[in-house]
From TrEMBL:
This is Uncharacterized protein. The lineage of its organism: Archaea, Methanobacteriati, Methanobacteriota, Stenosarchaea group, Halobacteria.
Length: 441
């Protein structure tokens, strides 16, 4: 079946004609970062527990610690530090997967998802309780939307979500991806996630998240959350305990900080963007829409202001995404490795739950990197290949070093935030027609 859906390089050449390929060099973005030393991460996570509101939790009480499915730096150390901080204060913590429908919408799948991220009982020092069972804990006042929560978390004496604050890929608002979203969608499991995304079609997550978060804070013993902010190199730069009394306000402030620190493309206008891999551990949409500038698969949500990319060629998946191809619909062309590696079941469950089925549309599949590059260059309009603005990145989270075509290298020479690492040379391919050079990072 893969061969039947794959367009050969010869067919692409016939369709595109004689397309010149650009020479490519290497550029590096100059970022000033101040990460928490890795050896101090667990201790700082434990210290963040001191800022939570735990006064009402009885001695020896159970605290449900929510952990998600994202590729967060130092996640085992952070979760383990929070667990240790709670244990030091005389509580009995357990971790529950707060990841909506991820992991194939099964309890075992979610436990396995945590394990792939290094979050195991041995690593974090406490029990992991995984279930897809939820309890209805209320409903929104005007629309009557049911509010769901993980059955194990509801039974605990306190709930503490642990999550990274970052711009969301599907919408823009005061509160996006972070503690509130983990409570509403992650802790709601598949039913809560499906409910939220169904209603988002008419209501929008930007309006829904704050309201349902308020409902959950009133209905459940949420003691606050531990917020994570990462820098441009995906290293932990802030760990902060956020009390429920300032939940939404403080999260909005941290979101602004996260936006300033997130990695972005070094150029806002590109003819072709080649992305070596997409995956749920890179972004909820496989490729971060705040990087690619493409959010056309959502409903009633505006496109990001930047970037402007004519064509995207996706080459493959991360190992940790386990074939979840969410976000491949952003690409204009895909390498046959994308088709060979995708898990349709996981992808469709995620897409239906999130009401973003266009995000898993399969782009035209080409058999080689050379075919993908030719097809991309052959559809950008009357721009000669050697003059095209082409960038190749490892993924949308790792953007410090990128391959860049000659026009971009020339433009970089006048910018203090960019450094030319190597001069442009002809693109080399292996015997199969794929890039001979490995990913830039």
């Amino acid at each position: 079946m893969i061969d039947d859906l794959t367009v050969s390089e010869s067919t692409v050449r016939t369709a595109c004609g004689d397309v010149a390929l650009p020479e490519m060099g290497v550029l590096e973005q100059r970022w000033e970062t101040d990460p928490i030393p890795p050896e101090s991460v667990a201790a700082e996570a434990a210290a963040a527990v001191g800022d939570l509101e735990l006064e009402e939790v009885p001695a020896g009480g159970e605290v449900a610690v929510g952990a998600g499915s994202r590729g967060i730096a130092n996640l085992p150390e952070i979760v383990g530090g929070v667990v240790a901080g709670l244990q030091e204060r005389g509580y009995e913590p357990f971790v529950f997967p707060a990841m909506g429908s991820h992991g194939g919408a099964t309890a075992e799948g979610q436990r396995e998802k945590l394990a792939t991220l290094g979050v195991t009982e041995e690593a974090i020092g406490c029990e992991i309780r995984a279930t897809m069972d939820v309890v209805t804990v209320g409903e929104t006042p005007e629309r009557g939307v049911p509010v769901y929560a993980d059955a194990h978390a509801v039974e605990a004496d306190a709930i503490v979500p642990v999550n990274r604050i970052k711009p969301h890929t599907d919408f823009s608002g005061d509160v996006e991806s972070g503690l509130s979203k983990m409570l509403v969608i992650g802790m709601g499991k598949q039913r809560g996630a499906k409910m939220a995304h169904d209603w988002a079609v008419d209501w929008s997550l930007r309006n829904m998240l704050p309201e349902i978060t308020g409902q959950l804070l009133e209905a459940l013993p949420v003691a606050g959350g531990v917020a994570i902010v990462e820098d441009q190199l995906d290293e932990t730069t802030r760990l902060e305990g956020v009390a429920p009394s300032g939940f939404l306000e403080r999260e909005a402030e941290l979101l602004e900080e996260a936006w300033d620190l997130m990695p972005k493309l070094p150029f806002e206008e590109l003819d072709v963007l080649v992305v070596d891999r997409l995956g749920k551990d890179v972004s909820g949409q496989g490729m971060d829409t705040n990087v690619t500038g493409r959010r056309h698969f959502t409903i009633d949500e505006p496109e990001p202001e930047t970037a402007d990319v004519k064509r995207i060629f996706a080459r493959g998946f991360t190992e940790k995404t386990k074939g979840n191809a969410m976000g491949m619909g952003q690409a204009d062309f895909a390498h046959r490795d994308v088709l060979a590696g995708l898990d349709w079941s996981k992808s469709l469950i995620n897409a239906i739950t999130a009401s973003t089925v266009r995000g898993v549309r399969l782009p035209p599949v080409v058999e080689t990197d050379r075919a993908g590059l030719i097809a991309s260059l052959g559809t950008i309009g009357p721009v000669p290949g050697e003059e095209a603005r082409v960038l190749r990145a490892t993924d949308t989270m790792r953007l410090k070093r990128c391959y860049a075509s000659a026009p971009l290298v020339e433009a970089a020479r006048d910018r203090e935030d960019l450094r030319v690492v190597s001069e442009p040379t002809p693109v080399e391919f292996d015997g199969n027609g794929d890039f001979a050079a490995s990913s830039p990072e």
